């Protein structure tokens, strides 16, 4: 059974669309028969994704520092709630229990989690998919900054290809069970799989990561590579 770790906001006062996105992720995780791993909080997007996953029958595992339990932030409805002593231990437990990592819109904490798991994947400390779901451009500025770092030589292009960016929930979850990109091969050497029939194919088009549109208007990108702008498509695979 696939276990996906979801990083997302736990702050109050964010727009309703972000809560709805988190709930939809939880519903689709449950529909695939997967396990949800989260930060164990009951508030905001973190609470919404876990509640929706449980409502759909998914097993939910939360990992939360003791100090946050004492502040009454814990999701006590979790099927499994692990209380740890530090944020470092929290992240280590979440990483160990997950087969893939999915970041939704969030703030400093989500950024920190995303960058750590993205970097460790690039360094080949793990071989699990790292996916960013960004339907409304929440992370556009951050991705532009990282691309600029790469242009200046501070970030290897292979590291950029290690992150899969998508605007669609189903495509994001597909990416969580797809072969890991950024394995050192060039786009020309990589195998591309059409999700409609499972046949290998060349990239269907090139996308502008600013608006997510392909160069050919009839084709819509499913995954956007923030490193080279290439369209990535893989066959959907169901967990369970």
Question: Any overview of this molecule?
Answer:
The structure is a single chain. By secondary structure, the protein is α/β, with parallel strands linked by helices. The protein has a domain at 3-128: 3-Layer(aba) Sandwich (Rossmann fold), CATH 3.40.50. The protein contains 8 helices and 9 strands. It has a 9-stranded mixed sheet with strand order 4-3-2-1-5-6-7-8-9, with helices on both faces. Strand 8 (223-224) and strand 9 (231-232) form a beta hairpin. Helix 1 (16-31) packs parallel to helix 2. The protein is globular and about 45 Å long. It starts with a strand and ends in an 8-residue tail after the last strand. Residues 184-240 have low confidence and may be disordered.
Strand order of the largest sheet: 4-3-2-1-5-6-7-8-9
Highest-level CATH class of the domain at 3-128: Alpha Beta
Overall geometric form: globular
Can you tell me the CATH topology of the domain at 3-128? Answer: Rossmann fold
Q: Could you describe the largest sheet, including whether it forms a barrel?
A: 9 strands, mixed
Instruction: State the oligomer.
Output: single chain
Helix-strand pattern, N to C? EHEHEHEHEHEHHEHEE
CATH architecture of the domain at 3-128: 3-Layer(aba) Sandwich
**Mean pLDDT metric:** 81
Measured on Cα atoms, how large is the radius of gyration? 17 Å
Number of strands: 9
């Amino acid at each position: 059974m696939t276990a996906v770790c979801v990083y997302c906001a736990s702050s109050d006062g964010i727009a309703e669309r972000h809560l709805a996105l988190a709930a939809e992720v939880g519903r689709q995780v449950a529909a695939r028969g997967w396990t949800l791993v989260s930060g164990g909080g009951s508030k905001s997007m973190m609470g919404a994704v876990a509640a929706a996953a449980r409502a759909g029958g998914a097993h939910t595992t939360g990992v939360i520092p003791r100090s946050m339990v004492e502040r009454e932030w814990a999701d006590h409805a979790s099927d499994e709630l692990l209380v740890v002593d530090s944020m470092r231990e929290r992240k280590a437990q979440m990483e160990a229990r997950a087969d893939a990592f999915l970041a939704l819109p969030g703030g400093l904490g989500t950024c920190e989690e995303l960058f750590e798991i993205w970097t460790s994947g690039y360094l080949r400390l793990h071989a699990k998919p790292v996916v960013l779901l960004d339907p409304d451009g929440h992370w556009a500025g951050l991705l532009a900054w990282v691309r600029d770092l790469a242009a200046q030589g501070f970030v290897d292009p292979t590291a950029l290809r290690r992150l899969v960016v998508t605007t669609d929930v189903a495509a994001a979850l597909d990416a969580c069970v797809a072969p890991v990109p950024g394995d050192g091969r060039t786009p020309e050497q990589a195998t591309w799989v059409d999700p409609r029939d499972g046949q290998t194919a060349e990239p269907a088009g090139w996308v502008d990561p600013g608006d997510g549109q392909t160069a050919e208007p009839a084709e819509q990108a499913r995954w956007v590579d923030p490193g080279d702008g290439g369209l990535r498509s893989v066959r959907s695979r169901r967990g369970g």
